[in-house]
């Protein structure tokens, strides 16, 4: 995404949303790696939730993470 990421409207929206809520970050690291969130169930349940950042600051829905985590069935001992 490199420089093209800085020209996207959604990136600037995410930046201002984070700035308004008080997030400052540490500005260390390369800064061009997008992240993601996975919720993986026990044994053969597999991936219950997958969220990949499509642009900088793209957040996962907390209720979706909690809902996926509740679906995890405990391993049989």
TrEMBL record:
GO terms for cellular component: cytoplasm. Keywords: Antioxidant, Cytoplasm, Redox-active center. It is found in: Cytoplasm. The keyword Cytoplasm applies. One of its GO terms (molecular function) is antioxidant activity. Belongs to the peroxiredoxin-like PRXL2 family. PRXL2A subfamily. Its main location: cytoplasm. It comes from the Eukaryota. It holds the Pfam family AhpC-TSA_2. InterPro entries: PXL2A/B/C. Coiled coil: none annotated. This is Peroxiredoxin-like 2A. Transmembrane segments: none annotated.
């Amino acid at each position: 995404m490199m420089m093209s990421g800085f020209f996207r409207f959604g990136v600037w929206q995410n930046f201002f949303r984070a700035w308004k809520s008080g997030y400052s970050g540490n500005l260390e690291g390369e800064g061009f790696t997008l992240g993601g969130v996975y919720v993986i169930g026990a044994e053969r349940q597999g991936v219950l939730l997958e969220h990949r950042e499509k642009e900088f600051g793209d957040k996962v829905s907390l209720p979706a993470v909690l809902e996926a985590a509740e679906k995890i069935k405990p391993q049989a001992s």
